[in-house]
Amino acid sequence: MKNILKSVSAFALGLFAANAMALDTSKILLCASLEVHECVDGEACRTVQPEDVDAPTFIWIDFEEKELRSGAGSRTSQIDHIEEVEDRIVLQGVEDGHEDARDGTGWTISIGTQTGRMVGTAAVEQAAIVIFGACTET
Q1: What is the pLDDT of residues 14-36, one digit of tens each?
Q2: SS3 of 73-118
Q3: CA torsion, points 106, 131, 128, 46, in degrees to nearest 10?
Q4: What is the pTM of this model?
Q5: Containing H/E element for 26?
Q6: Do the beta carbons of residue 96 and residue 104 sit within 8 Å?
Q7: Which 3 state secondary structure label does DSSP give 65?
Q8: Residue 48 forms part of a structural domain
Q9: Residues spanned by the domain of 60
Q10: Structural domains counted in the chain
Q11: Are 47 and 39 in contact (CB under 8 A)?
Q12: 59-64: long-range contacts at Cβ-Cβ below 8 A with a sequence spacing of 24 or more?
């Protein structure tokens, strides 16, 4: 019984210690979308699946290349701005969209360096996508 308690205690301490360490931005981060909301001007926000709004389920963040990747690397986005604010890393970028559509997007991702918790937003004309998720080092 004592060995089981020691094992459980060591596991719990390991989880706590891992959660307390800062993310290493010299490594690529993998972020998962856990909750996605679509907000349209004049309507209430609604919870959706990532694919309903063409949002990725997984995002890889490469700080060295200043690039976001989704899927099998088929979609990329350049990170225009990176800044550390308190215990968060804030990334920002702009996408021009398609030539024949008014679909340009400004986006921001904020990641807690101690927790790995992520909030991402993408704003288009009179609509926004809000993504809550979590990131870890790969």
Answers
A1: 444 444 568 898 999 999 999 99
A2: CCEEEECCEEEEECCEEEEEEEECCCCCCCCCEEEEEEEECCCCEE
A3: 170
A4: 0.81
A5: none
A6: yes
A7: coil
A8: yes
A9: 22-137
A10: 1
A11: no
A12: 59/30, 59/31, 59/33, 59/109, 59/120, 60/28, 60/29, 60/30, 60/31, 60/138, 61/28, 61/29, 61/30, 61/31, 61/91, 61/109, 61/111, 61/135, 62/28, 63/25, 63/26, 63/28, 63/29, 64/26
- Classify burial at 109, counting beta carbons within 10 Å of its beta carbon; exposed 0-12, middle 13-18, buried 19 or more: buried
| Amino acid 74: pLDDT | 75
Amino acid at 114: Q
Residue 17 covered by a domain: no
Q: How far is CA 130 from the centre of its chain?
A: 10
Please identify which residue in the block is written with the tokens 């995002």.
Answer: 59
